[in-house]
Amino acid sequence: MAGGGRGQVLVVDDSRAQRRILTMSLQRWGYMVTEAGSGEEALRLARETPFDIVLSDWVMPGMSGLEFCKAFRALPHESYGYFIMLTSKSEKGEVADGLDGGADDFLTKPVSADELHARLRAGQRILGMQAELVEKNRLIRATLDELQKLYDSLDRDLIEARRLQQTLVRDRHRDFGRGVASILMKPSGHVGGDLAGFFEISARRVALYSVDVSGHGVASALMTARLAGVLSGASPDQNIALTGGLDGRRDAWPPEMVAARFNRMMLEEIQVDQYFTMAYAEVDLASGRLQLVQAGHPYPLILRAGGGIELLGAGGPPIGLLPNVIFQRVEAQLAPGDRLFLVSDGVTECPTPEGEELGDEGLMRILRDNAQLDSPALLEALVWNLNAHAGGGDFPDDVSGVLFDYRG
User: Fold this and answer.
1) Model-level pTM greater than 0.70?
2) Under 8 Å between Cβ of 218 and 298
């Protein structure tokens, strides 16, 4: 309450005697009292002081109590003033007018001291609840302001993290002479848990990979950054798939061994509650020989030059869940004009608004419909078709993959 004691009360009545009677009772009960002899004077006082309680006569010369009540309610005070109308009126319609005008309570004149005291205590309870609500709202606003500052700071950091994550795969398109690789990367949020890429093993061998880390957000993005570092062609000495070879020249572990090395690294070195799925392939550019491993990832596809589409692999366990698992190598043969597609489950599991997933058949349908396009255009068409399938808006999961054109 404003002021000390029980609060500040404004008594409004054109009768000085009536004001004094009310004032004496109020002061005896511990209230601070201000008197006004008219509605106009009361309004001037109320503009300067946020009174806690107003006792106003209804019938006064000039501005009536009802008119004063409406003007009082229009004042720009934060705190609420409890308004009690003093009246000899008892008609229900007139009482309703008073309530509509902003009055909280009514007392019939002549005023009973006991009844007035009881009505004042009821008003104080309401004012106490209102003050408590105002304070809670203030705390909520302050908390929301702090949260907004934190969100804005986090949003800026995530935008910067997305820029940094995009640098993990600097080349989205690479011509290896006898083959061309193109990458699709579309995170569902600021940062993603998918990774797709390629690197050169030797003059005639190329490695391709598609990775999907479990979960979303910053933790998954940090894991993709770690994995990008050990699958980098720019740092062959740190690449988990490469070996120096018996004669000192660069060589690579077979795909199933690459998966096994990753599994051991996740369980023995990194030791976090995360895992990832992966499709990793090695292509011999001279012969077209393809060998790959599928570790819990969607089935790799071969788009044959003649128009057919083949699914490769048999599933396989994800990486980082269980120790001593055995990963199976899958082999196939690419002919000139064939394309190999390693894709994340953000594509095959993309749902319609009704929840129906695209699936392998839906993916193959899109690839067949756009088979005449070159690989960058085909990946763009895939995103457009996927967006239409999802009903527009953002994808619920990261969408990524690597498409390799074999020239032979």
Assistant:
1) no
2) no
